[in-house]
Amino acid sequence: MTLKLGVIGAGAIGQDHIRRCMQTLSGSRITAVNDINPDNAGSAVARYAADARIFDDPHALIRSDDVDAVIVTSWGATHEAFVLATIAAGKPVFCEKPLATTAEACRRIVEAEMKHGRRLVQVGFMRPYDAGYRALKATLDSGRIGEPLMLHCAHRNPRVGKNYTTDMAITDTLIHELHVLRWMLDDDYVSAQVLYPRKSGKALEHLRDPQIVLLETARGTRIDVEIFVNCQYGYDVQCEVIGELGIARLPEPSAVPLRSEAARSEAILMDWKERFIGAYDVELQDFIDGVRAGVLRGPDAWSGYCAAVAADACVAAQTSGAVTPISLPAAPAFYR
Ligand code: NAI
Ligand code: NAD
Ligand code: ISE
């Protein structure tokens, strides 16, 4: 049976997910689209899903008999309400990151899912599906570089728009590192601190950019993450792990080594859609297959909550400048 999917939020990633479900993946089709901006819903349907119905009301989309599962790709602040409504309808939901913008809101989703009694939520943290991160984790797990002692990471975007605020460096950007590093190290964060280097002249007036986030884990591993969202030159994600016996790095995406005009060079990608295209394909196929098989295996609501607990501490640390403790309750049996 082909899975009928409804999408709420037909912006950048919503349209990209609609395209991938209709043109690349198997086992699903897009039957319904809603967007607070009707032009976005209209253009998504015209470009990729001519047979899909445009809903004016997202809650009618969630309830529709023509929708078996929902993809939430609207702005982060709207995620909680749509995920809770989809759980209340007893339908599976793929929610783009962040699961919600605060830990308290994520906790409400966790409680609702546990009350329902069966997993319905997958969070769009795609990095654990990325071949490079998987290879890096496999290297750490093999013991070849010994225990991880320090990590140096960077998350750089060429530029961001005027709606991007200083706290979004945490809730929208760093949230990927908060999720993937916890998964990769199999460790929990215990503290966070945020430092502001000299501000880039390319950043808009209201935005502190770049930022450095310092994290400490329960086993004592120290992590620094540079967030620099107006770096101009490319979309660049870096991760280097310093171990007791050696160093392991996240592989660069493959690019043609070029000799031209008296220079050796390799192109750097500019767009996050291209950088993680394979990971987005695999994560969404995993969701579709999981819903059809009745077993979701991808990043769960609890891991969305854990990332949000750490994010809350980082946001507090942005204003206090202090080393801020992070403490997580033990995972409920439902998520173990
Ligand atoms: P966008 O601004 O391009 O698109 C958001 C769309 O949602 C817009 O069309 C907007 O009109 C619509 N929308 C907003 N509020 C709505 C509401 N209440 N009801 C219905 N529609 C509503 O933003 P973008 O870049 O597509 O991001 C959307 C979400 O996806 C965010 O949560 C973002 O963090 C996440 N994202 C995840 C990525 C990843 O790598 N996993 C990459 C890019 C975005
Ligand atoms: P896994 O199957 O043990 O998955 C662990 C899951 O629990 C992840 O969803 C993760 O978010 C969460 N989790 C558990 N411990 C965590 C921690 N300490 N920090 C943060 N999150 C934690 O591990 P895996 O096999 O390496 O897979 C990782 C993810 O990638 C899974 O979601 C898996 O479904 C997915 N994956 C799927 C495919 C595929 O082909 N379908 C391929 C690669 C990865
Ligand atoms: C965007 O929302 C994403 O999730 C991208 O993966 C990320 O790199 C970018 O910084 C965010 O704005």
TrEMBL record:
Homotetramer. The keyword NAD applies. It is an enzyme of class 1 (oxidoreductase). Belongs to the Gfo/Idh/MocA family. Signal peptide: none annotated. Residues 4-125 form the Gfo/Idh/MocA-like oxidoreductase N-terminal domain. The gene is iolG. This is Inositol 2-dehydrogenase.
